[in-house]
Write a structure and sequence with these properties.
four-stranded antiparallel sheet; cell projection; cilium
Length: about 110
């Protein structure tokens, strides 16, 4: 399996199969109460550190160098928690992100 392919087993720790999700009989049914809760999703292209005096000198057209290289994966956060890495894509006239790697949490 390519590194950018993942299955439902990757997301739920392999505890159930797809048929249970589709039938509404598995863990997805138990999660229906949280489906409408909004979450904040952030895709971070990179970071930079500078002094306030440098920040105030920035003007239109200024370039801020980030800590990432072209083609390097970006970080995807849900509610300020790193959950995945991905790539920037263009969909029609908008930017989007495609997930290429799910970050497994140490919390269980």
């Amino acid at each position: 399996m390519a590194k950018d392919d993942f299955t439902l087993d990757d997301l739920d720790g392999g505890r159930t199969d797809l048929a249970e999700y589709e039938s509404g009989m598995g863990p997805a049914k138990d999660l229906e109460a949280v489906y409408d809760i909004p979450v904040q999703i952030s895709a971070v292209l990179g970071k930079s550190t500078m002094q306030v005096s440098q920040l105030l000198k920035l003007g239109r057209g200024a370039v801020v160098e980030l800590d990432r290289k072209v083609g390097e994966a970006i970080d995807i956060y849900v509610n300020n928690r790193l959950v995945a890495r991905g790539e920037v894509v263009v969909v029609e006239d908008r930017l989007g992100v495609t997930m290429t790697e799910i970050i497994k949490s140490d919390r269980g």
